[in-house]
Amino acid sequence: MAIDLLSRPAAPAPNTAVFMPELVYFEPDALLYPKGEQILAWAKKQGLDIHMTTSHNQIRDLPGESELEKYRIAKRTLVVGIRKTLKFETSKPSAEYAIPIATGCMGHCHYCYLQTTMGAKPYIRVYVNMNDILHAAQGYIDERAPEITRFEAACTSDPVGLEHISGSLKQVIEFMGQQEYGRLRFVTKYHHVEPLLDAKHNKRTRFRFSVNADYVIRNFEPGTSKFHERIEAAGKVAKAGYPLGFIIAPIIWHEGWEDGYAALMEKLYQALPPEATEDLTFEMIQHRFTKTAKNIIAQRYPKTKLEMDEEKRKYKWGKYGRGKYVYPDEQATALREFITERIFDKFPQAKIEYFT
Ligand code: SF4
Description:
single chain, alpha/beta, Rossmann fold, eight-stranded mixed beta sheet, five-stranded mixed beta sheet, binds iron/sulfur cluster
């Protein structure tokens, strides 16, 4: 018997499941839109705990004993509302504008800047008035035409991880597919790409995956899809004809980082089908933090191994006096040069868009 057990192959690790909220709140007016009704029907079918709220900006009665517990519950709470602000934020260096289709994310990446930007409202909001949002996007495109206007859909969320609930990303992809002067980009750490594979993208959407050295994924990205799942999804996306990209972010200086990032490139090279490498871009973002972020991260992920020692960093002044800590020039250059060389070694045709 014991021999039988030992010789049995190890069970494969379970796939990362799609996000399933525990609580769902609706603004009453959201139910006047087909998307609102459709999400309500979905939530009922899943047997989720459904509530009404007056505004998606004011969910005050979330359960939880401690701040930490409230935070964890908020990350499993979905709010369905109407996007009122239709003035888009800028989104340099990856695009001209951020297109707001969702706010918040169910992932638990320790370093995520949403922890600071979303402050006391870490719950996940999806918007039902897509026509208003697309109409605003059209205005921005027309204003700049014939210059190309790029929109980033992942500035405030991970929209691929919410697609099974909202279907909004596919709408934006197909809208942009019809725009001569509009382009879409987004990045994801989720592998649930199936609903997007048959979208009429017309090659006007760049589908990017966030990848990293094994050490970073293992230690700092709980609640997201595994590396091999993301890469498998990247292959499917490339086969569906999308231009593909990878964002290596945050690049973290850690013991053995050279081996870690070399292994990352080797794994990408081994796993990607040839069509994925024809029009491939890379973006590189070194790890940075603010004092505010450091305090929030310490409260929410008290055991994190994320190094945030101001003494070891360089202070980079930012807009409105809000600076951040990045790696000193020597380390940043070493990271940039090493990873750039590895990228070109494996993917000589690839384009590196920036290192920041
Ligand atoms: S997946 Fe992206 S948006 Fe979500 S927590 Fe992680 S870094 Fe933040």
